[in-house]
Design brief:
There is one protein chain. The protein is an alpha/beta fold and 817 residues long. The chain has 7 domains: 103 residues, 3-Layer(aba) Sandwich (GIY-YIG endonuclease), CATH 3.40.1440.60; 68 residues, Orthogonal Bundle (Arc Repressor Mutant, subunit A), CATH 1.10.10; 63 residues, no CATH class; 180 residues, P-loop containing nucleotide triphosphate hydrolases (Rossmann fold, 3-Layer(aba) Sandwich); 180 residues, Rossmann fold, CATH 3.40.50.300; 58 residues, no CATH class; 93 residues, Alpha-Beta Plaits. The chain contains 26 helices and 37 strands. It has a 7-stranded parallel β-sheet, with helices on both faces. It has a 6-stranded mixed β-sheet with strand order 5-2-1-4-3-6. It has a 6-stranded parallel β-sheet with strand order 20-32-31-23-30-29, sandwiched between helices. Helix 22 packs parallel to helix 23. It is globular. The two termini are 48 Å apart. The protein binds adenosine-5'-diphosphate and zinc ion (2 copies). Adenosine-5'-diphosphate binds next to helix 12. Keywords: ATP-binding, DNA replication, DNA-binding, Helicase, Hydrolase, Isomerase, Metal-binding, Nucleotide-binding, Primosome, Zinc. It is an enzyme of class 5 (isomerase). Its cofactor is Zn(2+).
Length: 817
């Protein structure tokens, strides 16, 4: 009989912890169940069982678990394996993965108190004895501690009982540190079983011939039933029968109807399926065939399809096939591309089989989706979600779609696990022997390389759907325009002319200005000083809207200055420009038109982003100015002109991927133009019109870009030829950070020689008064990744043992983006 369990705790600890279990518990316990366990002096944590075994730990005496929290596993065996892979590949702990993977409501940690749910509706006769005792006690006193429940029931393991009461929405666990999970309950009606036969039904209607109102309700029930298989909502039935709750009640008390409750999935779909059929054009047909053929031999396939070529339609078809096989599908895309537009499109085809998983959802909503995925018995579902959707408890995953696979936001930056959802999703799919399709108009060099080298299958769509032409791309030399005095603010005469023509035609316009590399800063024309953040090594950014100077790293802000803070000269001006300045200039140029702006400042809140998109779709905005948020898969019908205000600040960004990213961004934003019949137009303003990337964008020359960039990656030892691991050190002490970085770099150089780069200060070397230093390790293709990480791990353990460096934190980022 096994008498130990290994438990994963939601903490950054290197190991699982072993606890003892009783014989009874051993019979009951399975991997993936939650248990409450003591840890440290007096803490109680929720842990996940990773293994049940009979090996006593060698270095400590195992304590018994406190209680079992689940009746069936909350975490699947595949998830446990997936967590283990993530922890080992991305060099973090399983506990950190657990924290990222489970909605917080599942991980209770300290003293809880239970209360009766305020609007609890229940039948006492439906309660088990111990459940009844708890409810009765709670009717007499407002709350009970878990310990008091234990005393009341004379049992050690009471959380399963409480979990049942919670599931029935009778009892709630209240605890300060965790947000309450409260499913919304909806009342449904069904006909009593004894009336299910045709004869009984007729007899019933005869019996009710004098109870008109009741008869009416029953007839309405039948007509609803005939229309759809969905459960009949009590309120809805009452409404369409034009009757009162008491009529329904009397039918229930006559045992004609039965009432029951279901948790309403807050993200449930209520509309209708409006599409039943997808008909491919010849190019889609061919690409679809290529994908299917690739899946015969390979697990991953890359779909390179220009913007608006109909990639999404191909995804829909593949998902449909998988659902028909009774399997689940996962449709991953960058957070920001997860728009109502796309969700509606999926729902129109798959109806309530669509589950949406969004980081902006509340904990309740996430818990519901999690449980919905876990209950595979309720039918196959397609989950559409951003990167963290890879952590859902899939049962029978058949397909993973990774849309916009080139997007760097698939990589989690902070905190650990610093995983890349695209790469992790491939591993996830393999655990299920499922297939992965990556799609993009501008694939990442890494994925394209894998396709070229036959690791991935490949399919291509090089035409837009419906004979729509690719937009015409024109480059405007703004150095020249400046010289000839043909600039108005940041607008060339060419761009203004095109804008005016589009406005006259009643078309909409998108203007793209990436603020990331280049923001408006204040500069003194006398002494050159620009105001700096006192906490970070950056200049403050001017925000005209609030008339403030702000730090984008820590939020520090001061009022706009009229004089130079260094020399008091009043000859100061703003340098560089962001979306806000473009918006201001446009308002002055076109006072009669509506100008909108989409960037991090205007899209805060759960629906901020949605609101702007909807306003633009509803033609309430004529010109939309925005950052890279604009580039993400949006499908606007009435946009024919796209302007890139300044291509150079993208290209000059200090990162080895800057050129690849510029190409992707510009082509993606260009792809927003002319998605219907008329050919779209794109104007790119640049000081370097002959830059090879701008030339490649203008001719849509992906292959040329790929070839050239790949050569650079080869020459300078970057991915896909070398893998990277970046160590970031930080502390409040400048010299400690430096010394620590030197120590680690030296230890690494002893082993990895010239493949260690740095230590180096990052472009912003101080943030919130912490000093940063980076070390980069380059790993050649023929060097074992596992061994490399093991060495690195050893170095870090020795480092952590040095007390002088205790205040220095080391963050490891595998495959940094
Ligand atoms: P992508 O995902 O490659 O950007 P979409 O799938 O969004 O392209 O297709 C672009 C437009 O063409 C959409 O409006 C879509 O509805 C339409 N479309 C694409 N394929 C088909 C098809 N087979 N039948 C009908 N409409 C299609
Ligand atoms: Zn000055
Ligand atoms: Zn700052």
């Amino acid at each position: 009989m096994p008498n130990f369990v290994d438990v994963i705790l939601p903490l950054p600890l290197d190991n699982r912890f072993t606890y003892t279990i009783s014989e009874e518990e051993a019979v009951f316990l399975q991997n993936g169940m939650r248990v409450a366990v003591p840890f440290g002096k007096s803490k109680v944590y929720t842990g996940i069982i990773a293994e049940v075994h009979n090996r006593a730990p060698e270095v400590y005496e195992a304590k018994p678990i406190n209680q079992i929290l689940d009746e069936t596993p909350l975490v699947t065996q595949n998830q446990l394996e997936f967590w283990k892979w993530i922890a080992s590949y991305y060099m973090c702990t399983e506990g950190e993965v657990m924290r990222a993977a489970l909605p917080g409501a599942f991980i209770l940690e300290s003293e809880h108190i239970v209360q009766l749910q305020k609007e609890a509706e229940f039948n006492e006769s439906d309660l088990k004895d111990d459940e009844f005792l708890v409810v009765e006690a709670l009717q007499n006193q407002s709350s009970l501690k878990i310990k008091e429940v234990e005393a009341l029931l004379d049992k050690k393991s009471v959380l399963p009982i409480l979990n049942r009461l919670m599931a029935k929405d009778i009892v709630v666990l209240s605890q300060e540190i965790y947000e309450q999970y409260k499913p919304k309950r909806v009342k449904y009606i069904k006909l009593h079983e004894s009336y299910e036969s045709e004869d009984a039904m007729h007899q019933l209607l005869d019996e009710l011939s004098r109870a008109h109102k009741q008869r009416e309700v029953v007839l309405n029930y039948f007509s609803l039933k005939a229309k759809s298989l969905k459960p009949i909502n009590a309120k809805e039935l009452q409404k369409i029968s034009g009757t009162t709750a008491s009529v329904l009640k009397s039918l229930v008390s006559k045992n004609i109807f039965k009432e029951y409750y279901l948790n309403e999935d807050r993200v449930a779909f209520e509309g209708e399926i409006t599409r039943s059929h997808i008909e491919f054009n010849e190019y889609q047909l061919k690409a679809f065939g290529q994908i299917k053929a690739a899946f015969e031999e390979k697990t991953v396939c890359l779909l390179h399809g220009v913007t608006s070529s109909g990639k999404t339609e191909i995804y829909l078809k593949l998902i449909e096939e998988v659902l028909n096989e009774g399997k689940q599908a996962l449709y991953l895309l960058p957070e920001i591309a997860l728009t109502t537009q796309l969700i509606n499109r999926l729902q129109a085809y798959f109806g309530d089989k669509v589950l949406v998983f969004h980081s902006k959802y509340s904990m309740n909503e996430r818990v519901e989706v999690y449980q919905n995925v876990l209950k595979a018995g309720e039918g196959p579902k397609v989950v559409i979600g951003a990167r963290s959707a890879i952590f859902l408890p899939f049962q029978q995953l058949g397909l993973v779609i990774i849309d916009e696979e080139h997007e760097s936001s698939f990589k989690q930056y902070d905190p650990a696990p610093r995983y890349h959802a695209r790469d992790a999703a491939v591993v996830l799919a393999n655990l299920f022997k499922a297939k992965t399709l990556m799609g993009s108009a501008t694939p990442s060099l890494e994925s394209y390389y894998n396709a070229v080298h036959d690791k991935y299958g490949f399919a291509e769509l090089s035409r837009r759907f419906g004979n729509v032409m690719m937009p015409e791309i024109e480059i405007v030399d703004i150095k020249e325009k400046h010289r000839k005095k043909r600039m108005t603010g940041h607008f060339s005469d060419r761009l203004l002319k095109e804008i005016e023509e589009s406005l006259a035609e009643g078309e909409q316009i998108i203007l793209f200005q990436n603020r990331r590399g280049f923001s408006p800063i204040l500069e003194c024309n006398t002494c050159g000083h620009s105001p700096q953040c006192p906490n970070c090594d950056v200049s403050l950014t001017y925000h005209s809207h609030s008339n403030q100077l702000r730090c984008h790293y820590c939020g520090y802000h001061i009022a706009m200055q009229k004089r130079c803070m260094a020399c008091h000269s009043d000859d100061i001006s703003t340098k560089g420009f962001g979306t806000e300045q473009i918006e201001t200039e446009l308002k002055a140029l076109y006072p009669d038109h509506k100008i909108g702006r989409m960037d991090q400042d205007t899209t805060r809140g759960k629906h901020g982003y949605e609101k702007i998109i909807t306003a633009f779709e509803d033609l309430e905005i004529d010109i939309l100015v925005g950052t890279q948020m604009l580039t993400k898969g949006l499908d606007f019908r009435n946009v024919n002109l796209v302007g890139v205000m300044n291509a150079d600040n993208l290209l000059n960004f200090p990162d080895f991927r800057a050129h690849e990213r510029s190409f992707q961004l510009m082509l993606q934003v260009a792809g927003r133009a002319g998605r219907t019949k008329k050919r779209g137009k794109v104007l790119i303003q640049s000081y370097n019109p002959h830059h090879q990337i701008i030339q490649q964008v203008s001719t849509n020359d992906y292959a040329g870009m790929y070839k050239e960039q790949l050569q650079e990656r080869y020459n300078y030892k970057y991915p896909p030829y070398f893998r990277l691991v970046r160590l970031s050190l930080k502390s409040r002490d400048f010299s400690k950070t430096n010394e620590a970085a030197d120590w680690i770099a030296k230890a690494m150089q002893n082993v990895f020689k010239q493949n260690v780069l740095g230590p180096e200060f990052p472009p912003v070397a101080r943030i919130r008064n912490e000093y940063y230093k980076n070390i980069m390790l380059k790993i050649p293709q023929n060097q074992s990744l596992g061994k490399t990480k093991a060495v690195l791990y050893k170095i870090l353990i020795s480092f952590n043992a040095i007390s002088a460096y205790r205040s220095v934190r080391v963050i490891v980022n595998v495959d940094p983006m």
